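Journal club side-thread
Mid-discussion, someone asked how the predicted structure for our own chain would compare to the paper's figures. Pasting it here so we can look after the session.
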Amino acid sequence: MNPAMQPRLLLEQLYRVAVRRALPAETLAAHLPGIPKGRTLVVGAGKAAGAMAHAFEAAWPADAPVSGLVVTRYGHTPPRPAGLPMRIEIIEAAHPVPDEASLAAALRIRGLTEGLTHDDLVVCLISGGGSALLTLPVAGLDLADKQRINHALLESGADIREMNCVRKHLSRIKGGQLAAACWPAQVVTLAISDVPGDDVSVIASGPTVEDATSCADALAILSRYGIPVPGPVRDALATGALETPKPGDTRFGRNRVSVIATPGESLQAAAQAARAQGIETLIVSDAIEGESRDVGRVHAALARQARKDAPHRPGPLLLLSGGETTVTVMPLPAGVSRGRGGRAGEFCMGLAQALQGAPGIWALAADTDGIDGIEDNAGAFVAPDTLARGLLAGLALDDHLERHDAYGYFSAIGDLFITGPTHTNVNDFRAILVAQE
């Protein structure tokens, strides 16, 4: 490791390496389909959709006609590269809870699929966040219902597969239904994975991929977490009336899916960069799930053990991990207000609490889209003096953890990590640097 490199700067550098590996401009061109006999339509949704549209426009032949529409999160449309003509419209909507613009985007995209023929090609640009950005409720649900259900799912502690199973069966566009609407055209999906295991049927609730989950599964998940839905919708789930296209559906026979960036590839890029600086690096996993604070505590145990083993190593050790953790929001006592924060910050609070100021351990946890939950930070740093600086600022970490107030805690001690939108999304990035004794 470069002796002039400070731990915090090193961790930030590795985060940016991981993000760069997942940028559409770096990866999309290699996955382009051939030019069809008919028209080419590009549609899509997700936090990376704007950057994916730009990358597609730059790589698609200038003399090959193309048109389309994608939707991304507010503030996540990247600057248009100089000299790049606009052939694909980019609009914005709300995330993580949909709004009127999300509904309008879904209606417009669904409308663009009408009248397609066997000679036409539809390219779907899909990335994490598309579930909220592409909202078209089933009959019996209005936007307010969808917002309430989505908010309840986000706070329930349900994992991404459970949340997206419900979303698919309460939608007229998710769970393969967008691709089914494009038939008989060929559909080519280019996806950036933000889910553990890179299951394309889960990314953005799989609007172009057959769905192996069922109405019964969705109903069981709603019951498990105590989330009510209107009676007619519950009845429709119970009878299977809201079923999605299943594997083997002939309308998907010509379709193709390419995952152009994954969490594992980004972690490998960060690991390679660290090893180039002489740092021994271990990728713990790219698919870690679980309660964020608990995952932080487990990582603290790994870091403590690595610290004990330090005399047997020639240099520092870096632990990398990714995946998608959850935060279960529990009711607070009367008079106690909930704080601000997301999964990465909650992980950092759990990590710092378990480390208790252990020497020689630094960490960064951040979301690769640049947004931790709904805040303006990507995540936060943890250092050996995190708790001490918190006490000097009059803060009690346990109190902030109880109130899910990572933003308040790390903001007060200057340890928020702020990047702005990165225009990609391969989910959680966690790096822990363990120095020698």
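Post-session note: Residues 24-136+171-210+245-261 form a domain with the Rossmann fold fold (CATH 3.40.50.10180).
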